[in-house]
Description:
Helices cover 44% and strands 17% of the residues. The protein is of the alpha+beta class.
Amino acid sequence: xxxxxxxxxxxxxGRGAAVAHAAxxxxxxxKAALASLSEEQDLARRLAFNxxxxxxxxxxxxxxxxxxxxxxxxxxNHFLRDHYSGDVxxxxxxxxxxx
Length: 99
């Protein structure tokens, strides 16, 4: 008797194979492709937020490559303020890279 058909197992295996393929491709990239990836670091880094409490929206370029845009940091600090008291703190700029 054949085991019952399980579509979730096939979906899991298919996605797992796709992830493995992508990981192998990343490891096996030629040096020329890696060099072009380093050139992409000069691109603008963007963030976009929608504040659920104040209904404010923000979309901006906060860095150009590794250099922060000076006017963007106070704008982000103000947007991420305590919405109860209005107190504005100073966020660690490296946190924005993680976001």
